[in-house]
Design brief:
The protein is an all-alpha fold. It is built from 17 helices and 4 strands. The chain has a single domain, classed as Methane Monooxygenase Hydroxylase, Chain G, domain 1, CATH 1.20.58. Helix 8 packs antiparallel against helix 9. Bound molecules: protoporphyrin IX containing FE (HEM) and ligand DU6.
């Protein structure tokens, strides 16, 4: 039977790497000379923030047109650098001195670059995880010891650990992305053996991703994460510290609300949900599904398009439900269980890095009441119930 056109046959068209999945391959580290002031500020965020100098330095930036930025990788580096500077600018004073206005000198170029990339004018996962890395020895392996982030936040090596461990988990799971076109071809051609092969690769890459996740305990300190880093990931939607949002001076007359960085902006996990036919409730009544759907607007548009292509492709779940092949059902369940185990492990990590430090700090005599939205995700969601509901709907997908 002639191979029917498989919409996913060329991952390149979705800016997806055969080897690294949604990770930006070989991110640029430098921009053309005129933009050096942006790179210099972004490279010195930790010390500028610790010295409370960042806001003053931002105001001294030269007015720059974005016309000298050429190509996707320069735009991604510029969005990453300006995204880091924006988070540092807004949260430099912690929750005691929050600024409501982003100065035009940075707001105007940041919004123009965001528009060209189809990203929101706030730091997103595709910035500080997917594009924020380099190898120390370019000919060496992609291992933690041979890698470095391009930009960091205050809190010592906490942001490096958090961003690079997430990147390595993405890389482990990426080996499953490249078999998705083969899985769709197998369904179109009713080839059970090729389908089984593809699903075995999916479950083994998810198992490898969970193993990689363990690195978080070695490279991220819970107190540094909870007390310092998470502040800089916070957004201005559903945040009582910026109830109207942030005013982007010179761009919009009214303040705008954008959600803080979230791994719900990671395409890789949402891609497995789409492939396995796991619905996290309907976007009409279920807030978890709404949040996951909304976070797709914080992904590079080509990655969002890939998720939609996977979700609208031939249904793996329906094909297997209608199949008599018990082996096929078993392999499908192994994929679902691997995703459940990954989400369960993630919940344990969230307890260690958020729930426990939060209660420890709450118990400190001199600590003010925890703000009502501190227990919420950077996206303003009630994080534990969100994560548990996503894990539970994944579990329900078992055959
Ligand atoms: C210190 C380590 C971590 C903490 C404290 C943490 C915390 C959280 C929190 C609070 C959320 C809820 C939504 C949000 O606010 O973003 C979340 C979502 C998520 N996190 Fe993490 N996370 C950590 C590490 C990781 C790593 C290494 C990965 C792997 C890529 C990951 C993948 C996800 C995903 C995919 C979601 C969206 C919900 C889902 O699809 O299950 N997280 N995380
Ligand atoms: N209190 C408290 C509280 C603390 C943290 C959060 N949320 C949070 O850190 N989300 C980001 C996240 C979750 N998982 C992963 S892997 C890689 C990233 C990332 C990133 C960059 C920011 C784009 N993430 C919510 C509430």
């Amino acid at each position: 039977m002639a191979l029917l056109m498989n919409p996913l046959s060329n991952l390149e068209t979705y800016n997806i790497s055969e080897d690294l999945g949604f990770i930006l391959e070989d991110p640029l580290e430098e921009l053309p000379d005129p933009y050096q002031p942006w790179i210099r500020l972004a490279k010195n965020l930790p010390s500028l923030i610790d010295d409370q100098q960042l806001r003053d330095e931002v105001k001294k930036l030269p007015e720059l047109s974005i016309c000298h930025l050429q190509g996707h990788k320069e735009l991604r580096l510029a969005h990453l650098a300006l995204g880091c500077i924006t988070m540092g600018y807004v949260w430099e004073g912690g929750d005691k001195d929050v600024t409501q206005v982003l100065p035009r000198i940075i707001a105007v170029p940041f919004c123009e670059i965001s528009k060209k990339l189809g990203l929101p004018p706030i730091m997103v996962y595709a910035d500080c995880v997917l594009a924020n890395w380099k190898k120390k020895d370019p000919s060496g392996p992609m291992t933690y010891d041979n890698m470095e982030t391009l930009f960091a936040f205050p809190g010592g090596d906490c942001s490096k650990g958090f961003f690079l461990v997430s990147l390595l988990v993405e890389r482990a799971a990426a080996s499953a992305v490249k078999v998705i076109p083969d899985i769709f071809d197998a369904i179109i051609n009713k080839n059970c053996n090729v389908l089984k092969e593809g699903l075995r690769t999916v479950s083994s890459s998810l198992r490898e991703a969970e193993q990689t996740f363990h690195l978080v305990h070695e490279y991220v300190d819970p107190i540094d994460f909870f007390k310092i880093l998470r502040i800089y990931l916070s957004g201005w939607k559903g945040n009582s510290l910026l109830p109207e949002g942030l005013k982007y001076e010179g761009v919009w007359n009214n303040p705008r609300k954008f959600s803080g960085g979230s791994a719900a902006q990671s395409s890789i996990i949402q891609c497995f949900d789409a492939l396995l036919g796991i619905q996290h409730g309907s976007v009409h009544e279920n807030s978890s599904a709404q949040f996951l759907q909304e976070m797709r607007d914080y992904m590079p548009p080509s990655h969002k398009a890939f998720l939609e292509a996977v979700a609208s492709g031939p249904s793996v779940r329906e094909f297997i439900l209608s199949s008599k092949d018990a082996d096929l059902k078993k392999i499908y369940d192994e994929c679902v269980r691997a995703l459940v185990d990954l989400r369960n492990y993630h919940l344990k990590v969230v307890a260690k890095y958020i729930i426990i430090p939060s209660s420890q700090l709450k118990n400190n005599a001199n600590r003010k009441e925890v703000k009502e939205d501190e227990e919420k995700g950077t996206g303003g969601t009630d994080l534990m119930s969100f994560l548990k509901s996503v894990r539970d709907t994944t579990k329900k997908a078992c055959l």
